[in-house]
Design goal:
Order of helices and strands: EHHEEEHEEEEHH
Largest sheet: 8 strands, antiparallel
Distance between the termini: 36 Å
Structural class: alpha+beta
């Protein structure tokens, strides 16, 4: 796996079912589930992101093999114990749908990367910077749960963010901004390939796959319910999509009243 570590803001490319991009947006990259009732019946695939995967820890965590800070340990424990059926608001929902060790193959682990004490979410982008675009929806985030998955050898192999917004409309706006941004990404850097199936994911979801200029193949799984959004990016299609299905199962248990869905 390529180990150039960058923020998720420049790592993930995604488009959700029911969100259409420009006419120039490449087709055949996305494998979508059924769109929502308020959306068109088809969706455009996204263009590629501006950089490689967010393979490693960000603020609040440490590299594999080192002791994690207490706030990271606490975040991992909170997510592992969170019951999605009992959440009361989008922030709790983001904790409940954050990537867990149980979403991964045996022997894998997770490293939570919570914001540091006193850190402002406005200073920690999730999507800003994709294809050099600014996202108005970033100002409507209320919390996020970044988590990295590491394999038994301690190598970071999959990254994720679970993001809570102030409303379902804000989450939908983020998706549409993503599609618009990705349609302007440089096509000579990302070659899109047939994507794995989106079966078993949330109703608003996409899975797609692309090859970077250095030959690295990456898979992205993105899905949204109400005011929360989950994004995964990894090098192994089976591991990444299986984790996405596990997260989708938890998303389906979120109370609509808690997430504005």
């Amino acid at each position: 796996m390529r180990r150039s570590l960058v923020p998720l803001a420049v790592a993930a490319a995604l488009a959700l079912a029911g969100c259409s991009g420009s006419d120039d947006t490449p087709a055949a990259a996305a494998s979508t589930s059924a769109p929502s009732s308020s959306a068109p019946s088809s969706s455009a695939a996204s263009a590629g992101p501006t950089a490689g995967p967010t393979a490693g820890p960000t603020a609040g965590s440490t590299a594999a093999g080192r002791t994690e800070p207490g706030n990271a340990d606490a975040a991992e424990a909170a997510s592992a114990a969170a019951d999605p059926a009992t959440v009361r608001d989008p922030a709790e929902a983001a904790v409940a749908i954050a990537l867990r060790a149980s979403d991964l193959p045996a022997g894998w682990a997770v490293q939570a990367n919570p914001l540091g004490e006193g850190a402002a979410i406005a200073d920690n982008p999730s999507l800003d910077g994709i294809c050099d675009k600014k996202f108005g929806s970033e100002a409507h985030r209320t919390s996020k749960q970044p988590v990295v998955a590491v394999d038994p050898a301690g190598a970071a192999q999959l990254s994720s963010e679970a993001i809570a917004y102030d409303s379902a409309d804000s989450a939908s706006s983020a998706v549409r901004e993503l599609v618009a941004a990705f349609s302007s990404c440089p096509p000579d850097t990302y070659t899109f390939q047939p994507a794995p199936s989106a079966d078993g994911l949330a109703e608003m979801s996409v899975v797609f796959q692309y090859q970077l200029a250095d030959g690295t193949v990456q898979v992205v799984v993105a899905q949204a319910v109400g005011s929360v959004l989950s994004v995964l990016i990894g090098d192994d299609p089976d591991t990444t999509t299986a984790a996405g299905r596990a997260i989708a199962s938890r998303m389906s248990a979120l109370p609509a009243a808690a997430i504005g869905g």
